[in-house]
Inverse folding.
């Protein structure tokens, strides 16, 4: 878990976001994430978790509010500029190029880098994910679900982001692969990166997170430390109910 208190890196204030201007899905959500910390965003199906993370990643439009990364206002920074601004985003689906090799995917992630730096980041990615080093010449479609998720994270890490946004990294993975992927997420945070992760898998999510935010109908309904949320019977009953005792219903073995 993270060490002493640090000032937040990501500060989202009263974010309003959605797909159609008159029909916001996220209704004024504020949150903060510090370096070295994992904030997990939980909530029922359709609560707006993915919409929230996509709006922070610049993929879904924001209609109100402000997003700060350190001292920089990134509210209006378009998605293609966010990597250079220090934000890595791993979408839930279509997050690797399946016809390209592992190494080609990583090189694309590092497209902003110059030669020496690119080589160094590739080495770092292979050190972090030994499976990817072994499979560097294999095409994306030959990877298991878990390996693909590692590749998607490795790609996002190529530009050395200060903030990593993950949209349901456990989706479709077997419980064993979920713990492998989450172990990596924890290590990424422990290396000083701020991590915001959307999750359906409440139990596993709270186990690796420092803090949790529960979204209900596009609003922050509850926020607290992971241990406090885990042991709060009211939270479990009201918001986490059927998810608290099982993995996401849609999860299927893929590893
Ligand atoms: N591309 C889209 N265009 C229009 N509406 C969308 C789009 N994607 C999602 N929505 C709507 O936004 C609402 C919130 O969806 P979102 O995927 O953000 O919820 P979620 O909390 O991530 O749910 P889940 O856990 O099921 O993924 C839903 O009503 C959904 O139908």
């Amino acid at each position: 878990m993270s060490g002493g208190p640090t000032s937040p890196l990501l500060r989202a204030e009263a974010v309003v976001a959605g797909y159609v201007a008159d029909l916001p899905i996220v209704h004024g959500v504020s949150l903060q994430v510090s370096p070295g910390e994992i904030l997990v965003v939980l909530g029922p199906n359709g609560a707006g978790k993915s919409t929230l993370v996509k709006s922070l990643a610049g993929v879904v439009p924001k209609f109100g509010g402000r997003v700060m990364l350190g001292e920089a206002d990134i509210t209006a920074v378009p998605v293609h500029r966010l990597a250079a601004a220090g934000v890595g985003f791993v979408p839930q689906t279509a997050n690797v190029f399946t016809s390209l090799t592992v190494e080609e995917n990583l090189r694309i992630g590092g497209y902003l880098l110059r030669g020496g730096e690119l080589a160094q980041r590739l080495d770092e990615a292979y050190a972090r994910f030994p499976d990817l080093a072994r499979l560097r010449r294999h095409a994306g479609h030959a990877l298991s679900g878990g390996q693909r998720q590692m590749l998607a994270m490795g790609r996002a890490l190529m530009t050395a982001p200060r903030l990593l946004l993950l949209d349901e990294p456990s989706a479709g993975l077997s419980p064993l692969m979920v713990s492998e992927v989450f172990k990596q997420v924890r290590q990424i945070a422990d290396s000083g990166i701020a991590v915001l992760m959307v999750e359906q898998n409440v139990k596993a999510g709270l186990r690796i997170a420092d803090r949790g935010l529960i979204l209900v109908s596009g609003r922050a309904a509850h926020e607290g430390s992971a241990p406090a949320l885990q042991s709060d019977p009211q939270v479990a009953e009201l918001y986490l109910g059927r998810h608290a005792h099982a993995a996401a219903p849609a999860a299927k073995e893929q590893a």
Q: What stands out?
A: Residues 19, 25, 43, 45-51, 200 surround adenosine-5'-triphosphate (CB under 6 Å). The chain is about 40% helix and 25% strand. Residues 10-92+161-244 form a domain with the Rossmann fold fold (CATH 3.40.50.300). The beta strands are 10-17, 26-33, 38-42, 62-69, 72-73, 87-90, 163-167, 194-198, 211-216, 219-225.
